[in-house]
Amino acid sequence: MIDTLRRRFGLLGRNISYSFSKGYFTEKFSDEVFAGNSYENFDISEINYFTELVKNNPDLKGLNVTIPYKEQVIPFLDKLSKKAALIGAVNTIKFTKNGKLKGYNTDYYGFKKSLEPLLEPHHKKALILGTGGASKGVAFALDELGIPYTFVSREAKENIIDYNLINATTFDNFKIIINCTPVGTSPNTEACPDLPYEFFTDKHIAYDLIYNPAETQFLKNAKEKGAVIKNGYDMLIFQAEKAWKIWNK
């Protein structure tokens, strides 16, 4: 049986008072089965403070990682899982028994598990809005599902289109639209990615990694046109439970 006495976990990020992870794990640890476990936010203004954080908290067993450090934290780790290395982003860190820090990515797993039940034969290609750390996990999941994708950003680069190029033809070709940007997060809930929403149909999936609010303006706009919508809440639960398994293996 796992020794659950005095085991500390937490979330690494910036401006994370809204954190899903803290609420989720605090509630999980309220069960007497997990007595002795605790979870806290480690809100740092820049990634260079990470070394000091680790040094000052020698009893930490694991961390979740959120915006903006999913990529920035990698040089501070001793090792990456094979999938985290391929993805190029980390959202889970395990403090190993020999004192090493190993990075994992459970975002891809959470996204894949939450998207799969929605997929129909006509969902053949996806647009990924944003190019940050979260989008990398999404792209990896789509690779595993055999779904080709294109990134969308405010600046066109190689293999990336900008929002100005999205039109009716784009929506005909891409039946899955995934928002991996923070646009629309509380408190700026009236904001949404700059898309021609009139081209959404009932053949589209609109997926938003944001979970607060539960129905973003992006999702509302897509829903009005009949699209199937999904927020990031289930993804977060799946990735959190995957992280918990990693910390305990």
Automatic annotation (TrEMBL):
SUPFAM superfamilies referenced in this protein's UniProt entry, alphabetically: Aminoacid dehydrogenase-like, N-terminal domain, NAD(P)-binding Rossmann-fold domains
Keyword annotations from UniProtKB, A to Z: Amino-acid biosynthesis, Aromatic amino acid biosynthesis, Oxidoreductase
Entry superkingdom: Bacteria
Gene3D superfamilies on file: Leucine Dehydrogenase, chain A, domain 1, NAD(P)-binding Rossmann-like Domain
Pathway in which this enzyme or protein is active: Metabolic intermediate biosynthesis; chorismate biosynthesis; chorismate from D-erythrose 4-phosphate and phosphoenolpyruvate: step 4/7
Pfam families noted in UniProt: Shikimate_dh_N
Ranges of residues in domain Shikimate dehydrogenase substrate binding N-terminal: 11-93
PANTHER family: BIFUNCTIONAL 3-DEHYDROQUINATE DEHYDRATASE_SHIKIMATE DEHYDROGENASE, CHLOROPLASTIC, SHIKIMATE DEHYDROGENASE
Protein name in UniProt: Shikimate dehydrogenase
Organism encoding this protein: Flavobacterium azizsancarii
